[in-house]
């Protein structure tokens, strides 16, 4: 009997030429048939944007040799939609992996993340999906230490599936922190970005702004969060959902008398 | 004793010249001091995108007369961050309202919505926030029937506050459906967009795509969803959260043995 390899869709938000997606493609090629549909340029901070009011352009890319690869002018979420509904129409995608993001996507950053929007789009479409990110913003970040875990986590999901409507947010500690201690299942840390805008003047005297700032952890003492895991050199895994309903708040709104 | 009017920040995703924001500004001006920071062009489908890799430009706008208004080259989430951390720095924003969106943001659409990303950004920043949307995609949509409810819902939130980490997703039925029956607190309908891409060739023979498709309701029989409310001519209110952790899935991952 011939065993069919699982079909694995790979995307990211840093663009098809980034270092992280290359590592991910190499590791996924060991366990499945890989199909790549990734943005043709960086899409960091793209959140769950989709291209509704303009056209999307796709080009076959030769950069991964025999791995069928396409570069797309759209967002990470567009890439998933196009692959699923147009390019791989009629085929079952067994796994979607997104990343490896060049930079951390823990805590509140998940909501701004193009990497995770692709994974969550997968969950919406009923595809088991994982977003991988690395805690390293250095331009020459080292992704090598993530390799043994990529296949391990992907194989776990291929074998066990995921709770319906859920995608995994996987973050790797910085390589400089030394040997990884293990993997922890966590919840999203409650935190936010304290923005500080750098206000400048253009050559015509008009003001413009660069977004900057620093992250604030609202619960630095908590032991079950993704940031705790990462600070203690564990890989963090947060199961993420796309149902945004705050069920706990339904009652207080109704009792408060907002209905009529 | 002089009563201070509440400070209300108004934004949207259809851009500062759209019909919906004008109605919202007019109604909010009746109950508070209004400050407008809205995109200078349409940002539909922008999700929770932020501008991290380029500059943001702001210009004072005269279009709302005495209401202090700015148009911003950034996304809806950028508008909230800039208003809070730069333009209104040091002042307490009592309420953030976003919209009125030209089109429905019920069910899964909340995740792609620029209107709701602004409201959720408000929740992240600790500002009570509401996103308003109208079930009408017609270019000349009529927003008039929403007027009496805008102040009513805003006043409810100003008086009662909202559960921490929560923003309201308010959708209005189409004006053509006749008199609104009332307001219902709901959960987000489980549904998705079944994409159908329209594939075309450009004048050079290269392929390009338009995203299209139709919405699929996975639970048309459910009575407690936002789509049920809207179909039955009620205004739907869904409390939305930014914590994406699927708490119910934590256990099955741990028991499945993904940790090490």
From TrEMBL, chains A, B:
CC cofactor note: Binds 1 divalent metal cation per subunit.
PANTHER family: 5'-NUCLEOTIDASE SURE, 5'_3'-NUCLEOTIDASE SURE
InterPro entries referenced in this protein's UniProt entry, alphabetically: SurE (IPR030048), SurE-like_Pase/nucleotidase (IPR002828), SurE-like_sf (IPR036523)
GO molecular function: 3'-nucleotidase activity; 5'-nucleotidase activity; exopolyphosphatase activity; metal ion binding; nucleotide binding
Coiled coil: none
Ranges of residues in domain Survival protein SurE-like phosphatase/nucleotidase: 8-194
Catalysed reaction, written as an equation: a ribonucleoside 5'-phosphate + H2O = a ribonucleoside + phosphate
Family, per entry: Belongs to the SurE nucleotidase family.
Compartment(s) where it occurs, according to its Swiss-Prot or TrEMBL record: Cytoplasm
Entry-linked NCBIfam families: PRK00346.1-4, PRK00346.2-2, surE
EC number: 3.1.3.5
Highest taxon listed in the record's lineage: Bacteria
Binding locations of a divalent metal cation: 13-14, 44, 101
Keywords annotated in UniProt: Cytoplasm, Hydrolase, Metal-binding, Nucleotide-binding
Enzyme class label: hydrolase
Function: Nucleotidase that shows phosphatase activity on nucleoside 5'-monophosphates.
GO cellular component, one term: cytoplasm
Essential cofactor(s): a divalent metal cation
Main location: cytoplasm
Record protein name field: 5'-nucleotidase SurE
